[in-house]
Design goal:
With 198 residues, this protein is α+β, with helices and mostly antiparallel strands. The protein has a single domain (2-6, 28-197), classed as PH-domain like, CATH 2.30.29. Helices cover 33% and strands 29% of the residues. It is built from four helices and eight strands, in the order H-E-H-E-E-E-E-E-E-H-E-H. An eight-stranded mixed β-sheet has the order 4-3-2-1-7-6-5-8, sandwiched between helices. Strand 2 and strand 3 form a beta hairpin. The longest helix is centred in the last third of the chain and has 25 residues, at 149-173. The two termini are 32 Å apart. This is PID domain-containing protein. It comes from Candidula unifasciata. Residues 33-165 form the PID domain.
């Protein structure tokens, strides 16, 4: 399962993946995804790739450690429905892990960032704001394991479409928006991240 989370097949060039990702589209909302919930971690920032990288690595390491120890590993199987209202997390009928995934609606105005992971292309992650004021800032990174890199890409595109609809509504109401979805391919983001870390 996680062995297949590798960055990309070395027999393919980056340009091949860019062209494959370019055909992935979202033509309407809502979009429904069946994913495994990897978990959540508190983060210090509301937006940006650098805020989600470490939490995703920690979640994947925890899972790999269990696999290496030959422990039973069951991740919650859930539906993620992405719409202009936000993310609706529902338990899948085949889920065997009860009570570990946060079920319910995460309103669109609580989501500040979304991205297909740059290292594990099957993982989609987003940052959810729990509290935001001049006194305190509290945010959580949520990670979802998709069945393919294309599904991870489609989740990012769907959230981008939802944000686009929401931002148009805010503009009509005279309000601004403060959220971001990275829609560039993961390898392009990884190149930028390397420049950021240098």
């Amino acid at each position: 399962m996680l062995k297949k989370l590798t960055k990309f097949d070395k027999s393919k060039r980056k340009s091949d993946f860019r062209s494959e990702f370019s055909v992935v589209t979202v033509d309407r909302l809502p979009q429904v995804f069946v994913v495994k919930y990897l978990g959540q971690r508190d983060v210090t920032g509301a937006s940006g790739l650098h805020h989600v990288r470490k939490p995703v690595d920690e979640m994947v390491l925890k899972i790999r450690t269990k696999l290496d120890a030959k422990e039973d590993l069951n991740l919650p199987l859930i539906y993620v429905i992405i719409s202009p209202k936000g993310l609706d997390l529902r338990e899948h009928q085949s889920n065997k892990v009860k009570g570990t995934a946060p079920l319910g609606v995460i309103p669109i105005n609580f989501i500040s960032y979304g991205v297909q992971d740059i290292k594990y292309w099957k993982i989609f992650t987003c940052i959810v704001i729990k509290a935001l004021s001049w006194q305190s800032k509290s945010a959580t990174c949520h990670a979802f394991l998709c069945d393919s890199p294309h599904s991870g890409r489609k989740m990012a595109l769907a959230l981008g479409a939802a944000f686009n609809i929401y931002s148009k509504k805010l503009a009509t109401d005279g309000a601004g928006s403060n959220f971001q979805v990275e829609l560039r391919p993961p390898d392009e983001l990884a190149d930028e991240m390397q420049e950021y870390d240098a």
